[in-house]
Amino acid sequence: MAGGLRDGVDQWIAATDLPPVLAETSVEMRDRNGALMRVFPIEDGRMRLALSLDQVDPDFVAMLVAYEDKRFYRHNGVDPVALMRAAGQALWHGKVISGGSTLTMQVARLLENSGTGRWHGKWRQMRVALALEQRLTKQQILELYLAHAPYGGAVEGLRAAALAWFGKEPARLTPAEAALLVALPQAPEARRPDRHPARATAARQRVLARVNAADIGSLSPVPDRMSPFVRLAPHLADRLRANDPLSRRFDVTLDATLQRQINALAQRAVRGQARGVSAAIMVADHRTGEVLAATGSPLYSAQDGALGFVDMTRAVRSPGSTLKPFVYGLAFDQGLVHPDTLINDAPVAFGRYAPQNFDGIFRGELTVREALQLSLNIPPILLTHELGPARLMAALRAGGASPQVPGGKPGLAVALGGVGLTLTELVQLYGGLAREGAARPLVWEAGQATPAPPRMMSPAAAWQVGHILASILPPQGAGVLTGDIAYKTGTSYGHRDAWAIGFDGMHVVGVWLGRPDGTPIPGAFGGDMAAPVMFEAFGRLAPRPTPLGPPPPETLILSSASLPVPLQRFRSRDAVFAKAQDAPVVHFPPNGAVLQRTSDGVPLKLRAGILPLTVLVDGAPLMQGLRQREAILPLMEPGFTRISVIDAKGRASEVEIRLD
Q1: N or C: which end of the chain has fewer CB within 10 A?
Q2: Pfam family of this protein, just one (predicted)?
Q3: Full-model pTM
């Protein structure tokens, strides 16, 4: 008879329809060391984090079992002793004094979100608890409790609670912290320490007293507020989740500690700046391509009009002068120049395009090295004219960038920033300079495979560019010596973007400051705004700084005078057929002009030419020994006239005009 009853009970338990035991947990992003960087809430905004028993301090588990269900490991889901005690106390006192629920019964209640006070609810909980014990291990039941237990507000589960109330993982709780988290699930709102500190303190003391875990009189106060859940690199987290909405965890290459420092640095960088100014900073290991820190805005909000939700590490902007090093590197590779080749920084025009230096001053003849150090505009334009803008675009694409050119066809202005690139692309390109001309694709997720990096330029050319950039003086107070870090600054047209990109032997750092909507910032310069921030970012890295590499064996290191003759002074490939830059030019009247005759004659204006000058009209000398570049020609006869000018070196210029 007893056996049949037992079989019937077993069948009744086995037939129990269990609620789902797989709990939805928050999506997490973790750094390269496993540290939490971002948590996304589940439905209704609740926070419930994945947790296994081996992530919990064993002393907490012991305290929980001792306080809530001391016979947990011996009963089969229902504790008859506890039930009888609870029933007897209720009959004696006329009210519920203690509960008879086991931890397994509490799990049943949490899974079904059922109440605790009615007997039919208790009966259902007992049946589900018995079924859970048949189908799950004790460890699995504990893990379900620790995943679903409520801890106040939208916080569910021990791991979320430990982070919210104490800012730490549950593997390293103090006895007092553990006691509060043992007590909270029984009355999560009534015992919330931020709202009811006295009740929370009393509940904590009862737990500690029962388990004899600590000296109650020496405990610190209960927490008076919840800690906000970590939200590092939010732009990256949003992007990863949008690209893979089914993943529950993203392991990234970033370092959480460095990310916090870079976030704080971006916030300081915009402090005191005009309204709407934002900042973006990236740090990567150029040897592996791993991104170590990236902040797309100082604050992940629209505060101060800075459009903080816009990820400025991925925004297409004009790179200003930051592309000049690639022009020089390609020119080194093509044998056009050497770092110590002399090049002329003088007025030049290509059709209607007449580039100017940023300060409007021309330096004349100087070395290519000096031209790059001074970030002059004319020399890289001369070199781009020889290389062809398409070659520069091809090198950028080989480095992993996707340059966007207004109108679709690149012109000479691309060398000065007339192309769209992102901070991410510039960091990758400069990482390629640091890696002897081969850019490794940047990676954000741990274990992400990357293709073999293509080569932008030769190792020798890349080293020569880096060596020149490393000789640029750091900003005052940067705390590093010249030669420690190779870097370049840039300012886009109209002062819309301020850049600084640099590298040492291990890391590459990129900084952008500007307004996300593209409006100008009067007086903004990359050297003043972005460079100090970049050097401060390098100061957060260890080791600091890592030495740059030695020159490749094939590198040609010679002075200007020792270079082969073709490399001593830059001349364009068609220079044999071109006029010298100091040859005479008739500036007025222009060739083909039709002028009205006047009694004053025809004004003549010349440019360049070595004095004295000779002026001929229709082949006959009109003026000789002219020692100025302006004159009045006594021309009165109507018809066509040819005017020729010859300078002291015998170089000539002529125009033909018609007088009416």
Answers
A1: N
A2: Transpeptidase
A3: 0.82
